[in-house]
Automatic annotation (TrEMBL):
Domain of life: Bacteria
InterPro entries with a match to the protein in the record: LapD_MoxY_N (IPR032244), LapD_MoxY_peri_C (IPR042461)
Protein name: LapD/MoxY N-terminal periplasmic domain-containing protein
Key words of the record: Membrane, Transmembrane, Transmembrane helix
Transmembrane segments: 6-25
Organism: Aeromonas bivalvium
LapD/MoxY periplasmic domain span: 23-146
Amino acid sequence: MSLAKLLNGIIIILFLIGAVLLFMLEITTVRQSILDQMSANLETAITALGLVLQGTLLNEDKVLAETIVNAMFDGGFVSAITLIDPDGQMLFHKVFASTQQNVPAWLPHLIAMPPVKVEQELTDGWRILGSLTLEGHSGYAYQHLWGAISRTGLALLAGLLVFSLLIPWICHRLLRPLVEINQQLDLVRKHHYGSELPTPWLKELKAVAGSVNQLVSERKRDMLQQRLKIAQLGKQQEASSHLPLLNLRPLDERWQQQHFYSTQGDILLYRRLLPLKPFSCETSITALQQAVTDWLDRGHDGLSLPLSLLAHEEWDQLATTLAGVPKGRVIDWRWDLATLPANGVIAFMALERAGVAQAFSAIPLNNEVLTLLDPVKPTFISLAVTNAPLYWNLVSQNLHGSGYTVLAEASSITDSDILRAWGIDGYAAGASS
């Protein structure tokens, strides 16, 4: 689970807990407020009713008393009126019909509304005429309670909806620096170095981003220094172009193959297919497309193609064919030009975005070429290794720092232990190393 999802879940759960507690507090407050309001209304009503009944009862006019009571309280918040004389006999009792509640049936079972009653003695000077009792109607109370619950519930649901949309956005904004730092560290782990991280506004993340930027900056500086040193030492090395490719095995009249084994043991690393007659810009697009089909049918890992094909007049068709190569297959570019064509980097990056793995052979070991290849992320770099331990140790260290696997496709050294000591990962050998 990501940190963003965890924070989203925690915040939403805390919001729900707070919303439930707030809802319960609101219900309790509203319930008590309704009961207090009903009690106050009944106090006012009983005072007015007492004055009315006092006159009618002294005159023993019960019909007039009932008429007045019906006019005052029928359909209102009073459910029953009772008048008892000092001897305990009921002089007057009136029960009003239940009002329309418009509330769910489960509400009275879930929230109890205790009956509200008020009592008052009726007197005529010093003489007690009786005791008057008014009882509030529970339906009236539940109507007001349900109205308050509905309004509060809708407000909380609207708040939950807004929070559900707002919280992920806030978490995304807060955690964006962490995501960028993680992506940068992932690139460093893969020996690729992106651009400098922006400075976050959070103090703690600012320190982390600064440390990562310093790490990447120092690593880039070290890589540049190594490559400049490699270029300088390379001018002092003996030419390696005369070294033939090792252990080429013909397959038929058109193809030959080369197997690379690990210097760590008898482990096959890479098999590539090479044409007996090298391709060129003069080779027809049909022949090139047929070569790609033959390669895929044979099952070799890589297909060796000259870099000069980038200047082929029908390169766009060939690029479309190469972009359809399945994963696990490698386009192995052989550097046969003095300078890279103008469309070279664009073509490499298009294949890289299409998910096509690429390798390079016989590349010039200088900072310009290696910097161009960094975004392409080559799988293999095949070189002709000469007898120069210091130089090849530095080369392999730099290429390993970029995440490349170094292969010896041609070499004056045949001892795999020596190649391993120089940092070479694999070398061309026969069917068995």
